[in-house]
Write a structure and sequence with these properties.
single chain; alpha+beta; five-stranded mixed β-sheet; 9 helices; globular
């Protein structure tokens, strides 16, 4: 019986192949890391410019066709700079603090806290708001999208406009917010990442939550996806796992044809960030302790930007959601649209 004796040449080719395969993944990862790090540094430069009140570099960092969605329906770079200048004029000690920043592909996700003291009039198209001398503080969950030239081409911003207007003293919102309230703004305490190379698994778990719990109403799956001590920070309330299940169940009753899509879903280390778009028809009454809201039978759209912290078991332990309650209450007919 003959024995197989590979030649030296074949052995050499084999080892060269193994070496190339071994190095291919690190090189690919390095290229990915380089790109995301570049994007993160650009976002950091944007935040530094905002904090210094120096927006002159924005024309270099942002693409000419840049759009910021979430502050107004369509805000270009000129309008965005004007908006920031207006805020700084009203809040001369204005500061932007980055709590969490993660990146993947052409997306950087950032959790920001804007703050300052309302010392000067806030200029508005329909009339200025007089300063009240009080500290103002609000959170924003923002996705920055980059183009092939590493320019910011889009910002997708989510924040609680109702709470912000109330802090500024806009009279039309004061009474409503006193009824529905908002819990105290919770800052994120960042801890060193414990997980390693589990980003794909974390995204799969998040997508399972969207498909099973939100879209199909299989709420018991939340017991697997959320940790027993889970807490969710929501503009309406801070929710534990049981309360969150109840809220999702009620929302699906109000909007029985609810369908949620993850327009953006990225992960880095222990963090996952997503932009969720809720769509459906407001078909059933909302019964609250202080008011009953009759259905409009009209389409509604509800957008949430969320940061979720994932533990080593692959469960969400805490998340921070931001969305525009003012737009939501306008859609269901509680507030006028103008």
């Amino acid at each position: 019986m003959s024995q197989f004796r590979p030649s030296f040449g074949k052995i050499a080719v084999f080892f060269i192949f193994v070496i190339l395969i071994s190095f291919a993944h690190p090189f690919a990862a390095s290229a990915h890391d380089d790109t995301t790090n570049v994007h993160k540094k650009i976002v950091q430069r944007v935040e530094e410019g905002i904090n210094k009140g120096d927006l002159t570099g924005f024309d270099v960092l942002f693409a000419p066709d840049f759009v910021n969605q979430g502050i107004s329906p369509k805000m270009g770079i000129t309008e965005f700079k004007a908006y920031l200048s207006t805020i700084r004029d009203a809040l001369p000690d204005f500061q932007s603090t980055t709590e969490v920043m993660i990146a993947e592909g052409d997306i950087v996700a950032s959790r920001l806290i804007y703050s300052g003291t309302f010392k000067n009039p806030l200029v508005q198209p329909d009339g200025n708001l007089a300063p009240n001398g009080k500290p103002i503080k609000w959170a924003l969950n923002v996705f920055y999208r980059f183009d092939k030239d590493d320019k910011i081409v889009e910002m997708l911003t989510a924040y609680d406009q109702l709470d912000l207007l109330t802090q500024f003293g806009a009279s039309s919102t004061n009474g409503l917010l006193s009824l529905i309230g908002r819990p105290k703004l919770q800052s994120i305490k960042v801890v060193p990442a414990k997980t390693l190379d589990l980003e794909s698994a974390h995204k799969e778990v998040f997508q399972r939550f969207v498909e099973k719990a939100l879209n199909q109403g299989e709420l018991d799956v939340m017991d697997e996806i959320l940790s027993a001590d889970y807490i969710g920070h929501d503009p309406f309330a801070n929710l534990d796992r049981a309360s969150f299940k109840q809220v999702i169940g009620k929302f699906r009753e109000i909007v029985p044809d609810l369908h949620v899509t993850a327009d953006i879903l990225i992960a880095e280390g222990d963090w996952t960030a997503a932009r969720l778009i809720y769509r459906g028809t407001f078909k059933n009454k909302i019964a609250l302790p202080f008011v009953a809201i009759e259905p409009t039978n009209k389409p509604v759209q509800f957008i949430i930007n969320v940061f979720a912290h994932i533990d080593e078991k692959g469960q969400a332990t805490e998340d921070w959601k931001e969305f525009n309650r003012l737009v939501w209450l306008q859609q269901v007919g509680v507030l006028p649209t103008s």
